[in-house]
Amino acid sequence: GQQVMQIPQYQHVQEGEDFTTYCNSSTTLSNIQWYKQRPGGHPVFLIQLVKSGEVKKQKRLTFQFGEAKKNSSLHITATQTTDVGTYFCAHASTDSWGKLQFGAGTQVVVTP
Amino acid sequence: NAGVTQTPKFQVLKTGQSMTLQCAQDMNHNSMYWYRQDPGMGLRLIYYSASEGTTDKGEVPNGYNVSRLNKREFSLRLESAAPSQTSVYFCASSEIDFLDSSYNSPLHFGNGTRLTVT
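^ inputs. structure came back:
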């Protein structure tokens, strides 16, 4: 099936700084979802992007779907300690309805 | 509202032992999933069930079997556990919108089962 690459794998951020994590595919994606998993917790849905060039915001988080629908990004401004966790992108497999495949995730560590 | 409930939370098995991981959801979702999570590898789909009465293989089905007992419950069975199956297992559910192919409903995850096979 289609694979998505998430970069970077690890992100160390100073509290108050901004950072961006990326999700890239070699093929066109029908949609992309983002999840956050806190340490020791389970993944929690953040957002879904469907349209080419779509941008959605959730407070300090900005999600974007590329114009060609082959990549997506998550940008966090003024990072806080509550942003610690692993962020996953996920996309629907084209060969089987409803089957989501996840990227390997970006693990975010925030230092005060 | 319980959401997705998994049992047990922790389990230690010896190689060759069998066990069943239980999952139940109370959101009336049609679809249910089993994922495993290993360090650095994200979440990999083991099996899923698009609706009651159907199951299908995911990326890593070998060594596992599933049963969609009813709309609420979806169990995962390890017939003969191996150390390579040491992992965290997550059950999830979602509602599929068959009228909109561009949209996938969000997955709702359980708290996970941490399985160690020695």
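The radius of gyration of chain B is 14 Å. The interface with chain A takes residues 31, 33, 35, 40-45, 48, 50, 56, 58-59, 90, 94, 96, 98, 101-112 of chain B (CB under 8 Å).
thumbs up if we can close this ticket
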